[in-house]
Specification:
Helix content is 30%, strand content 24%. The chain is of the alpha/beta class and 402 residues long. It has two domains: 5-16 and 268-387, Lyase, Ornithine Decarboxylase, Chain A, domain 1 (Beta Barrel); 89-261, Alpha-Beta Barrel (TIM Barrel), CATH 3.20.20. Strands 1, 10, 11, 12, 13, 14, 15, 16 and 17 form a nine-stranded mixed sheet that branches. The chain has an eight-stranded parallel β-barrel with strand order 2-3-4-5-6-7-8-9, surrounded by seven helices. The structure holds ligand LLP. Ligand LLP binds at residues 45, 48, 66, 89, 149, 186, 189-190, 224-227, 260-264, 299, 303, 357-358.
């Protein structure tokens, strides 16, 4: 059922994030089915869209949660994700975060350095309970994506190189308060080529075999996330081909296959609705100024990301190119560039597509703009899942100090 953007924008105002919950379910099922016949856990990478209702939706479908802060772990728990399906990753964890994660008895902590392993061991010892861990391997594979979201090369800060990881596993196996049960890699985001993932899976599977040979019982093989979506004309990795490559690499290893998908589960389910404020010309250049801005959707500014734009209900034939820009005081504040558009009028509605991942979660209060409201749509019914942020919400933590 097509979503009635006009009605939603009138009812809830703009800028407004709208998510198609049925499509989320469809995306999840494609991956779950691709791994059918295998022991598998599809985890949802909470950072892509951390709204509690979104997390709960995936939890109800059976997903686990991949978290990168204790805040995300708390969100996952609050949204009802089972604790044995929650993992806590990230290059820098504070002692307090480690303590809470261990106390909550989540599945495992994903480690990214020897120094971090020592901190986790200390905290686990103080609590008197062993920490289940996995180590993120940096396989030094080029994922061929935007440099800002590439993570699997030695030049990136992420993960541990193989020789060092082996030493860490041996240390952990002999340590009373560390229990190495998993292995992990994640080479980057918005990947459209399967070959680097298959290569990394092979490298990490070989390492897993050599660890098992010396008695280190790895039970979870976590291939990270990163499967890309189509923003413009990208070719896509099919869930089947993805699963096949991973199953092939891990043949004979008795492990649960895990992946931590963010964008592939939510990216194409989200829309940012924005209204035209007015148009202006500078020299020969045409600008359409809208009520959403880089504080609502940062991806164009930060990555030059290309989000498809549609202008609803305008059929004028006179079309010319325009930049769609927000009200923020930065030249980088744009949502789309050189879009062929008919002349727009005040309050015309523009839909920014594929904004379900890293849209709202990367939004800010820059220029004291409140964050947008969020709406879920399922089977033709909508419900609010986050209120629009008010001015009072924004100043709440400062007022007492005036
Ligand atoms: N696992 C780990 C360890 C990660 O670092 C990430 C994303 C994921 C899973 C989920 O990746 P996904 O399946 O969504 O590609 N803000 C950027 C994307 C940053 C991704 C960071 N890590 C963007 O808007 O494109």
């Amino acid at each position: 059922m097509p979503i009635d953007f006009q009605t939603l924008s009138k009812k809830y105002d703009t800028p407004l994030y709208v998510y198609d919950f049925d499509r989320m379910q469809g995306n999840y099922q494609l991956f779950k089915e691709a791994f059918s016949g295998e022991k598998s856990l599809i985890s949802y990478a909470v950072k892509a869209n951390s709204n509690l209702s979104v997390i709960r939706h995936f939890g109800e479908l059976g997903a686990g949660a991949d978290c990168v802060s204790i805040g995300e772990v708390r969100r996952a728990l609050s949204a009802g994700i089972e604790r044995y399906k929650i993992i806590f990753s990230g290059v820098g964890k504070q002692d307090e975060e480690i303590r809470e994660a261990l106390t909550e008895e989540i599945l495992m902590l994903n480690l990214e350095s020897e120094a971090e392993m020592k901190r986790v061991e200390m905290v686990a010892q103080a609590l008197g309970r062993p920490a289940r861990i996995s180590i993120r391997i940096n396989p030094n594979v080029d994922p061929k994506t935007h440099p800002y979201i590439s993570t699997g090369l030695h030049e990136n800060k992420f993960g541990v190189e193989i020789a060092r990881a082996k030493r860490m596993y041996i240390y952990a196996k002999n340590a009373e308060f560390l229990d190495p049960i998993g292995i992990h890699f994640h080479i980057g985001s918005q990947l459209t080529d399967l070959a680097p993932i298959a290569e990394a899976a092979q490298i990490v599977a070989d390492l897993t075999r050599s660890l098992k040979a010396i008695g280190i019982e790895i039970r979870f093989f976590d291939v990270g996330g990163g499967v890309g979506i189509r923003y413009a004309d990208e070719t896509l990795i099919s869930p089947q081909a993805y699963a096949e490559a991973i199953v092939k690499a891990t043949k004979g290893l008795d492990v649960t296959l895990m992946c931590e998908l963010g964008r592939a589960l939510v990216g194409n389910t989200g829309y940012l609705l924005t209204s035209v404020l007015y148009e202006k010309q500078n020299g020969g250049k045409r600008f359409v100024i809208v009520d959403a801005a880089m504080n609502d959707l940062l991806r164009p500014t930060l990555y030059n990301a290309d989000h498809r734009i549609t202008l609803l209900d305008r059929k004028d034939t006179e079309i010319s190119e325009a930049d769609i820009v927000g009200p923020i005081c930065e030249s980088g504040d744009w949502l789309a560039k050189a879009v062929p558009l008919p002349k727009t009028e005040h309050n015309d509605l523009i839909v920014v597509h594929d904004a379900g991942a890293y849209g709202f979660t990367m939004s800010s209060n820059y220029n004291t703009r409140g964050r947008a409201a969020e709406i879920a749509v399922s089977a033709g019914n909508e419900r609010m899942i986050r209120q629009r942020e008010s001015f009072e919400d924004q100043i709440r933590l400062e007022e007492a100090y005036l």
